[in-house]
Amino acid sequence: MESGRPRRKQSRKGSMAEVPKDLQNQIKEFEDLFTVDCTKLKQIVDHFVHELEKGLSVEGGNIKLTLQPMNVTWVFSFPTGNEKGTYLALDMGGTNLRVCEIVLGEEKGGFDITQSKYRLPEELKTGTAEGLWGYLADCLQQFIEYHHENEECLSNLPLGFTFSYPATQEYIDHGVLQRWTKGFDIDGVEGRDVVAPFEEVLVKGGLPIKIAALVNDTTGTLIASAYTDPEIRIGCIFGTGVNAAYMEDAGSIPKIAHLKLPPDTPVAINCEYGAFDNEHVVLPRTPYDLIIDRDSPRPGQQTFEKMTAGLYLGEIFRLALIDIVDHKPGLIFEGQDVSKLRKPFSLDTSFLSAIEEDPYENLLETRELFETTLDIMTTQPELEMCRRLAELIGTRAARLSACGVAAICKKKNIESCHVGADGSVFNKYPHFKARGAQALREILDWADHEVDKVDILRAEDGSGVGAALIAALTLKRVKEGNLVGVRDHALMKSLT
């Protein structure tokens, strides 16, 4: 430990007692706004269960605007651990693009992975469809040229394409984008198949790649985690966006009854529950949530995501501070230039994470963070208030996120299981896992002496290994003659 820099103590009551009354009142206002108690959590979960069930019906539910939720993914089984073969995986996330080559089957449940990461340029997110598909193809070509420089016999490489945006899939090798999320807003893509135009670019570029499966990262997380952990029942993403996937029985999915599948056939469902409560029935939205929704590219959509996902937590924090500056002059940052703080989305979730991780009782690192990022000099009471605000926003996100997991457990009557979770918020935000676990205990009424029955664990690589596994599972069933949910039969058979 460095000398002269006191470490943070467990209790901060002494520090809070030194905060002036007006700032204590402000903290109380924030606590009232952001605290979600057990009663409210249970109310949210009950509504969530109703929406999950309705989303599987022919009519669809409110996890939508005018779009279909609870997407059937055409993945009909968990992996056995005996899958074999070499597969490419392309992961198009909200910030980065990743290309992987995965070799399955060296040993049961084992795999080797080679990967490269590419930054998704910001201008691409509001550019053209042609620019997007061309960039993805260029990255694939760079990857192949680098890792297979002297190999001339590559052909028909099967690709699992992780496309982490809401898509309706009538086939596993096909997907119609419902709506852009995560800050994307590219014209001419929504309402259309994303596989066909991408394949056209691949063909024009002479790339020996065939898309065997279009995969959502959440479904990939579910399958990849189940590959190494047989107790996995749910896959979740807590990152730039939020979502979950789980296995449903075909007999409980009225909207695919026409396929006449055996009722006990497992079908992976991509919930797309970032859009939960778009009708604003149950979620406790604050004025800051309303502003974020109003100013977003898609007002009225992704309500749950805008309250819980990494893309928005820093902005909620920023709006709360600006609200004080504008409506309670002199309470914080008196006489200072707050122009940097006024820039929308100038603070990301890592800003809150750093505040919560500050180990010093005097919040020295938080003070430096405000100085270097915003050119704002802070007093100790201001730091205490900012610390509490960050805790409240982070805690609300974790507790609300637990509602989706609890809803799936209640719907499926799951009393105990493992949940595979991925995403930057789950992996990096301090206390997120513990706060979510506490919320689950409250919602599911576990006794104090009971261990966690539903344990949320760090997932395997869903966007890479999961996509490869789903491609492998698809080709395996095509080889066995099961063509349900496959569009290009001839192509799939050529890959097997």
From TrEMBL:
Its EC number is 2.7.1.-. Residues 233-473 form the Hexokinase C-terminal domain. GO terms for cellular component: cytosol; mitochondrion. One of its GO terms (molecular function) is D-glucose binding. Pfam families: Hexokinase_1 (PF00349), Hexokinase_2 (PF03727). Residues 26-227 form the Hexokinase N-terminal domain. The keyword Chaperone does not apply. It catalyses: a D-hexose + ATP = a D-hexose 6-phosphate + ADP + H(+); D-fructose + ATP = D-fructose 6-phosphate + ADP + H(+). Residues 1-12 have a biased composition (Basic residues). Pathway: Carbohydrate metabolism; hexose metabolism; Carbohydrate degradation; glycolysis; D-glyceraldehyde 3-phosphate and glycerone phosphate from D-glucose: step 1/4. GO terms for biological process: glucose metabolic process; glycolytic process; intracellular glucose homeostasis; mannose metabolic process. Belongs to the hexokinase family. This is Phosphotransferase. It comes from Elaphomyces granulatus.
